[in-house]
Amino acid sequence: MSFEPKLLGFLCNWCSYAGADLAGVSRIQYPPNMRVIRVMCSGRIDPKFIVQALELGIDGVYVMGCHIGDCHYLEGNYEAVKKYEMTREFLKLVGLDNRIRLDWVSASEGVRFGEVVSKFVNDIKELGPSPLSGDSPDKDLINKVRAIRLAAGSNRMRALVGRERKITEEDNVYGEKYPLEKYKEIMSQAIIEEYERHRILIALEDESKSVKSLASELSVDPSIILEHILTLKGRAQVDFQEIIKNTPIYMRRE
Ligand code: FES
Could you tell which of 10, 11, 12, 39 is best to mutate to test the pocket of ligand 1, judged by most ligand atoms within 8 Å of the CB? Predict the structure, then answer.
């Protein structure tokens, strides 16, 4: 039996959803694989929504909004681009980045809506089913994707992605812009750190552990794990529990 992907589309109300509607009333033929969630603006699409869909076994997620410059809330789609780019960076860590896509479809582009959806369906068919779909999904990968969802929704990542345009596109009080390249470097570093920290929090859910055992479980250098533990202690998310055979054991606090 041929593989029929299950896709989810987040469509902005004013352009892409209207484009999908036009495709429907114009009787344009395209594969019926995509379920649609209508949001008022593509800027509303939280990275967590996309990651959670993948976590639940969806084979691909499409984000669609008005063309750049046409957003009905002026700049919502500029924000959508930043959030989408961050989400892709996170998903690259687990090889799921090619299962999401961003596109602009206007209310008059019914034909184009059918075309881009057909292309996405074909591309995902080529990729095959998501490793998180089916009856026995990869448990380790589920935990990794869960860590990504939590990390993407963390205060640090929200602050970084939410301020990127202001910091890199607008002059500061000295009339300078912060270089985009440098900002991207900070983002990339933060993505890895928050991903690893949330993996630690997940690993400590059922059982308290030492730095060494966390390091071997997560395949991360023990010195980096220790740094993360200290940060998580500072955030009151992890605490020292006890010493067993000269080894400190850490527990999750929440
Ligand atoms: S209203 Fe369509 S992207 Fe903002």
Answer: 12
Distance 51 CA to ligand 1 centre (A): 21
Show the domain range for 23.
Answer: 7-127
* Atom number of ligand 1 nearest to Cα 76: 4
- Please name the residue that has the structure tokens 């000295």: 174
Per the structure, how many domains does the chain have? 2
From residue 195, how far is each of 146, 205, 223 by CA, in Å?
10, 16, 16
Q: In terms of domains, do 115 and 211 share one?
A: no
Low-confidence residues in the chain, pLDDT < 50: none
Ligand 1, pocket residues at CB < 6 Å: 12, 14-15, 41-43, 65-66, 71-73, 76-77
Residue 190 lies in a domain: no
Q: Phi and psi at residue 214, in whole multiples of 5°?
A: -65, -40
Query: Domain of 53: which CATH number?
Result: 3.40.50.960
CA distances in angstroms from 143 to 100, 180, 200, listed in the order given: 19, 32, 10
Closest CA to 106 of 74, 68, 67: 67
pLDDT of residue 2: 84
DSSP conformation class of 179: -
Contact by Cβ (8 Å): 66, 12: yes
What pLDDT shows up at residue 120?
98
Q: What is the reported pTM? A: 0.94
